[in-house]
Amino acid sequence: MPSHFQLLKTDTATAARRGRLQTLHGVIETPIFMPVGTQGTVKAVTPVQLREVGAQIILGNTYHLNLRPGSELVRDMGGLHKFMGWDGPILTDSGGFQVFSLSKLRNIQDDGIAFQSHLDGAKLFLGPREVMTIQANLGSDIAMVIDECPPWPCTRDECRAAVDRSYRWAKLCKQIATDNGFLAGGHHVFAIAQGSTYDDLRREAAESLAELDFPGYAVGGVSVGEPEPEMLKQVAATTPFMPAGKPRYTMGLGTPSQILKMIGLGVDMFDCVHPTRVSRNGAAFTPDGMINLRNERYRADSSPLVEGLDNYTCRQFSRAYLRHLVMANEILASTLLTIHNLHFYLDLVAQARARIEAGDFAAWSKAWISRYEAGEASG
Amino acid sequence: MPSHFQLLKTDTATAARRGRLQTLHGVIETPIFMPVGTQGTVKAVTPVQLREVGAQIILGNTYHLNLRPGSELVRDMGGLHKFMGWDGPILTDSGGFQVFSLSKLRNIQDDGIAFQSHLDGAKLFLGPREVMTIQANLGSDIAMVIDECPPWPCTRDECRAAVDRSYRWAKLCKQIATDNGFLAGGHHVFAIAQGSTYDDLRREAAESLAELDFPGYAVGGVSVGEPEPEMLKQVAATTPFMPAGKPRYTMGLGTPSQILKMIGLGVDMFDCVHPTRVSRNGAAFTPDGMINLRNERYRADSSPLVEGLDNYTCRQFSRAYLRHLVMANEILASTLLTIHNLHFYLDLVAQARARIEAGDFAAWSKAWISRYEAGEASG
C-alpha cells in the first residue's frame, strides 16, 4: 500500500521538506498554510473565494462546532464538508486547546477534561472517546488527538504529567479510531507532542508517539506566550525526533516570517487565525511588513496592496478604496482584506515549495525574512 | 439619433412596460431592480457576486460618498466605477433625500440646502450646482436632480412650495449638465416629480418636468411613512403624465409584491435597501414570504432557502447552515443572504420582463402577489 505521505525532497542547507499528503478529499502539497474556519466558516469569505486564493485544506474547530451547532447536527446534515459547502480536505483540532483557553472551571481527570461552555455555562466533558466521536461526526479528513497543553512557563513536574497524560490519551484516540473504522476508512489521526521548554521531554514525547505509528504528528504547546526564539527552540527540539516519512504540523502558528523559519526547521503544515483576524481590523500583509489601512497616508493611494500579486483584491482595488471601506466599517473591507491576506500566506508557502524544489530555499527565505522584518521594524 | 430608451412592449391589461435603456456602461433591461451601494459598496458582496446574481445597474449615494471619502477623491481615483471595481452602469441619487432624513439643522434656501454632516457636524451646502458637480466627479451613468421631498402628511401649501422649488432646481440641474457637457457626453439626468398626496400637483409636477425633456423621470416623495395603498395611489397619479418614451423610476421602493404592483402601474426602475438590509438581520425572501433564520424551526432544515433557485446560496447551502451562521454572528451569513435576497429580487424582475413579453403579466403577477402575501400573513 502506498503511503499517504510522499516526501518529494528534503533541503540540504535547512531541514525544509517538500511533500504531498493524500486525504479523502484530495491531495495537499506541503509545506502548506491552512486557513482557520472556527465556526464552520473561514470568516468573511466563501468557499469559492477560498479556492480562488489557493486554499488546499482548511481547519474546523471541534470545541466551537460541538457547542454550536453541535456535531450530531452536522453529521445529520451530511458532515462538515457538505454543511459548509467546502469539498476540499478539512483538519479538525480536538477541542482540547480551547478548553484550556476559553472555558470556565475546567477539571482535568484521567479520562478527559470536565469544563463549562463559554457560551452558556453548560457542563461538558471532552476525553479521547468524545473528541474522536465528534470528529467522526464532522467527517474530518485529519482528526487531532486530545492532549494536555501546559502553560508557559510550567514546572518540569507539570510538564512531565502533561506529556504522560497526552501520551495515554493519544494511544487511546488511536485505538478508538482503529476500532470504529475511522482510520481504515482513510481518515487520518495526528498525534501531538508536548514538552514545553524541556528539550528532553520534547524528544521523549516525539519518540514515544512515533512508536504508535500515527499518520502525522504535531508540535503542540507552542505560541502560548513565550517569546519567538523560545518558540522556535521548542519546535527545533521536537521535529528531529518525528518520523521523516510523516507530515509535521505546528498548531496555531504564525506570522509570515515565523512560518518560513519553521519550514526551515522541517515543518510541513501550519494554521493560524492571524491573517483572517487582522483582516477584520483593517490590516494587510505586504513583503515589507503589515500595513494598517486606517493610516491617513493611504487616503489617496491608488496603488494595490501588493503590486503584481494575483488576487481579486490586488487586481481590482486600490489602497484608497480599501481604506475607505475600513473607515466606513463596511463588511466588504473584511472580505477583500481576508482574500488578500490569505492569498499572501498561500502564495508565500507556494513560493517556499518552489524554492525547496529549486534548491535555494535557504537564501531565498533569509532574504524574504530580512526584508519583511525590516519593514515591520520601520513601519 | 436613436433614443437611449426603447419601449419594446406595453402590456394591454396593465400599464406594465418592457424596455431597454442604453447607458455609458451598458444596456439595462427593464423593468429592473437596482441594488443599493450606499458607501461605494453594495453591503457584504463583491462586484463579482453582484454580476453573478444578475445585477445590471447599481446605486451610489451622493450624500454619503460626498461626506466620505469625498467626490474629488473618487474623481482623482478614476471615478466611482473604477474606485469600487464595478464596470456596469451606476445611478446616483442627488443626496437631497438624505439631507432631509439624516442631517441636522437643515435650512432650505432658494439655491439649495444648508445642513450639517451627520458624521461630524461639518457645515455643508447642496444645491443644483453642487449635486451636479459631485455626480460628474463620481462619473454617474444616471444622475438625479436635487429636489425637495415634503414630509407625509403635508399641507397643500407646503406641497405646492416643494413642487415649485423642485421644478426650478430640476431646470437648473439640466442647464448645468448641458453647459458642462455631462449630457452631451452620454450621461443621463433624471428629473423627480413630487406632489405628495395631491393628485393634481402630482400631475402638474410630471407634466411640467416632461416639458423640460429629461432622459428619464422619477416618482419622488413616496414611501415616506404613508400606508401602501396611499403610496400606490401617488404612483398611479404620476406615471400616466410622464412621457411614455422615457424610463420611469420610483425611488427607494419596495417589497417584492410592491415592486410587481408598481410594474403594473408602468414603472421601469426600482431601488431599495430592503433586500440588503434584511440580509444582515438573518432574513430571506421566499415565494411564500420572508422568513427569519433565527427561528428554531430551521435548526435542522436541510433544504435550500428556495428549492430550484439558481444562486450560489441556494445551490450550496442549507437553511440549517445559514441559520448556524446567523446565530454565530458570522459575516458569511450577511454575504450569503445578500446573494440570495438580491438574486430573489433580480429573478423576480426578470420573470416580470418575461411575462410582459409573453402577454400574461397581469395574471402571473396577481397569483405571485397572492401567494407571497398569504405567506407573509401566516408567517
TrEMBL record, chains A, B:
Family (UniProt): Belongs to the queuine tRNA-ribosyltransferase family.
Gene Ontology BP, a term: tRNA queuosine(34) biosynthetic process
Location of the active site: 93, 271
Domain tRNA-guanine(15) transglycosylase-like: 14-373
Keywords: Glycosyltransferase, Queuosine biosynthesis, Transferase, tRNA processing
Organism in which the protein naturally occurs: Oleiharenicola lentus
Protein name per the record: Queuine tRNA-ribosyltransferase
Stored PANTHER family: QUEUINE TRNA-RIBOSYLTRANSFERASE
Gene (UniProt): tgt
Region annotated RNA binding, chain positions: 276-280
E.C. no: 2.4.2.29
Superkingdom of origin organism: Bacteria
Reported function: Catalyzes the base-exchange of a guanine (G) residue with the queuine precursor 7-aminomethyl-7-deazaguanine (PreQ1) at position 34 (anticodon wobble position) in tRNAs with GU(N) anticodons (tRNA-Asp, -Asn, -His and -Tyr). Catalysis occurs through a double-displacement mechanism. The nucleophile active site attacks the C1' of nucleotide 34 to detach the guanine base from the RNA, forming a covalent enzyme-RNA intermediate. The proton acceptor active site deprotonates the incoming PreQ1, allowing a nucleophilic attack on the C1' of the ribose to form the product.
GO cellular component: cytosol
Catalysed reaction, written as an equation: 7-aminomethyl-7-carbaguanine + guanosine(34) in tRNA = 7-aminomethyl-7-carbaguanosine(34) in tRNA + guanine
Enzyme class, UniProt record, top EC level: transferase
Pathway connected to this protein: tRNA modification; tRNA-queuosine biosynthesis
InterPro entries in alphabetical order: ArchSynthase1/Queuine_TRR, TGT, TGT-like_sf, tRNA_ribo_trans-like
Subunit structure and binding partners: Homodimer. Within each dimer, one monomer is responsible for RNA recognition and catalysis, while the other monomer binds to the replacement base PreQ1.
HAMAP family documented for this protein: Q_tRNA_Tgt
GO MF annotation, one: tRNA-guanosine(34) queuine transglycosylase activity
Keyword NAD: no
Binding residue positions for substrate: 93-97, 147, 194, 221
